[in-house]
Amino acid sequence: MTKIDETLELKVAELVRQTHEAKIPVMVIFEGVAAAGKSRLSNELLLALDAKYTHFYATKTPSEKDLRMPFLFPYWKNLPKHGDLTLYFRSWYANLIDYKHHNLKPEIFKDHHVLLSEIKGFEKMLLDDGYRIIKFNVVVDEKKRQEHIQQTKENPLTRWKAQEFEKAIPADIYLDEMDVLMKETKDIAPWHTINYTERGQAVNDMYETIIKELEQALKDKKKKEDKKEVDGKFTDHFETDLFEDTEDEMSKDDYKELLPELQQRMRELQYALYERKIPMILVYEGMDAAGKGGNIKRVRESLDPTGYEVNAISAPTETELSYHYLWRFATQIPRTGHIEIFDRSWYGRVLVERVEGFASTEEWQRAYEEINNFEKSLTLEGAIVIKFFLVLDKEEQLTRFEERQNTPEKQWKITDEDWRNREKWDIYLEASEDMIKKTSKENAPWVIVPANNKKAARIKALRTIIERCEERLWGVKRY
Predict the structure, then answer these.
(1) Where, if anywhere, are coiled coils annotated (predicted)?
(2) Residues 267, 160 within the same domain
């Protein structure tokens, strides 16, 4: 009988303190058939670590409520912040097997293995951001497993757990599925197999693996910091014609006639989306003073307030900065049938953070792919994603700035930062063009909205939303 090596346990605890101080987020996954020993290994590890920055999340078969959110939503919600460690008792892998075995969301996922691409993108994105993902596949001798199940059944205090084992996916199906998933994902973050037939050896194997992984994580962090570069990579004398069309005509009379009609249609479509359980995400970006707030107000003016929410995005808080930059958006994604409106969005990473040097060169350059994958996962789940970029010319912006400054009830809208941003007009244009060219995809295209005429911009946005909804709901195209 192998004894648990206390020096290994102490070494793990010390390394987790070091990763905490180094702000390295750690994710430890335990997968394996029911009664393989996952809970015992999990408990050994949890007891060895400081509870202040250690968390536990157990994946269960999704409930009806869970299925109203995207596949990866529980894991976004339970990401460790920088410096913390989260232990996952079953994970997105078991979740995928549940989806497939129980044929969950069949109207959306004709082939549930499409979720594998989401898993790969999710892990790669986190690893690129400095997360450490340690994946354990726990196996056990079948005779030993059955003994464990029998002991659990015979103990009145653990009988409930034996009932859960009976509801679990059959071992042969789980093992076949996991074999495929491990082969497909081993090159992203490797799998480590632990045999729990002999407890002491299993615990020591777990500790030794975690020690190697965390020591490497600390080395990787130092290398990354030594190589860190902050450069927006802007072009001297940049020119573009992408934003030249800033004017659409719209008379006051036409506006007054069209607006209530379109708003009424928006309300009807909101109910249709709710009935069909289709989520919609509206993203507003654009130049300062382009009228994003006013545009959003006209979109939501006639909507049922119980079915939508507006997220006005400002600079990230200290808490938000301690997570992956997409975390604060991924945790605000609407459930099925609801609408979420973002007044500025995740595109801050490739706009203001690139321009102002808040993101490293490597961070904003890889963000295009991360954002494309993020939006693809939303549309795979059935969401309608519409992205507006409102443009106005430099002269019109100056007029609006001066009006705000000279009108007492509007002065709150203008800040010193707005004036500073205006001085960086050309580099904001370049960042905006790069963003649109690299992230306008068929599933989530950009709509450039001329915004010198606020009324015309509002009508264009409303018509675009209505067209996309009608096309999705009934295959109709009006405008």
Answers:
(1) 204-272
(2) no
